Amino acid sequence: MAAQCVTKVELSIACTNLLDKDVGSKSDPLCVLLQNTSGQQWYEVDRTERVKNSLNPKFAKKFLIDYYFELVQKLKFGIYDIDNKTFDLNDDDFLGELECTLGQIVSSRTITKPLVLKNGRPAGRGSIMITAEEVKDNRVVVLEVEARKLDNKDFFGKSDPYLEFHKQTGDGNWVMVHRTEVIKNNLNPVWRPFKISLNSLCYSDMDKSIKVMHMK
Questions:
Q1: 141 near 156, Cβ under 8 Å?
Q2: Looking at the domain assignment, is residue 204 inside a domain?
Q3: Model confidence over 6-54: pLDDT tens digits?
Q4: Is 123 in the same domain as 171?
Q5: CA dist., res. 184 & res. 162, Å (int)
Q6: 3-state DSSP: the chain helix, strand, coil percent, rounded to 5?
Q7: Alpha-carbon distance 120 to 172, whole Å?
Q8: Is residue 103 part of a domain?
Q9: Residues 129 and 162 placed together within one structural domain of the fold
């Protein structure tokens, strides 16, 4: 029997114009990836981090999935507004979803589609953008980052800083690849060391520029 052709693919997720389910603030969205193996049976593959107070989130966490060339792999991307600490998504507000195949994403490299509700109607003006990259390099780097004497942007306390790391695509756009944790009330923060694949950080090109943005 011939061996199946398989490669690892990394999926990056971003959304725009999500429904706002929170009163007095914006939704706190999270993306969950589901895969269909047969029939109507879906199972959860992974989920991103929650992005606080954003209707246009760019999720730092990527989905790593095996792409089988001969198979039709059905995927579903669900967006939820997370307002509690439970793992169960049934008690969170549903903001929309997209169902497609992994082959559709890989063949286009980037797809942008409208989100729909469970009844098939549009989820407002919400849309999702999914970008696929083949992973050819398994090397990982560990980064330790700290800052000193940051500007204080808060009136009644010190800033709550975090960092966003971006890589540049071939068309000149910047894609976020990692977001650190927030450190409360600190102008000299030391963030936790983190691991990131060279493919995610710089397309495995050590001479390629990356951009680090300091956020409050």
A1: no
A2: yes
A3: 889 999 999 999 999 877 778 999 999 999 977 778 999 999 999 989 9
A4: no
A5: 9
A6: 5, 45, 50
A7: 35
A8: yes
A9: no
Position 197 confidence tier, pLDDT thresholds 50, 70, 90: confident
Tokens for 20? 């706002």
* Mean per-residue pLDDT, 134-147: 87
Determine the residue type at 69.
Answer: F
Q: Is residue 57, in this structure, part of any structural domain at all?
A: yes
Q: Hey, how many other C-beta atoms are within 10 angstroms of the C-beta on 50?
A: 18
What CATH code is carried by the domain that includes residue 63? 2.60.40.150
Question: By residue range, what is the domain housing residue 129?
Answer: 7-134
Q: Which ranges constitute the DSSP H helices of the chain? A: 102-108, 198-202
pLDDT bin (cut points 50, 70, 90) of residue 154 is: low
Residue-averaged pLDDT of the chain = 88
Beta bridge partners of 131: 12, 110
CB of 129 closer than 8 Å to CB of 110: yes
Torsion of CA 169, 170, 171, 172, to 10 degrees: 60
How does pLDDT run across 43-95, given as a tens digit for each residue?
Answer: 999 999 999 899 999 999 999 999 988 889 999 999 999 888 888 888 889 99
Same domain, 150 and 87: no
Structural domains in the chain (count): 2
- Whether 51 is covered by a domain: the verdict is yes
Same domain, 42 and 130: yes
Residue 117 and residue 144 in one domain: no
Instruction: Give the DSSP letter of residue 187.
Output: S
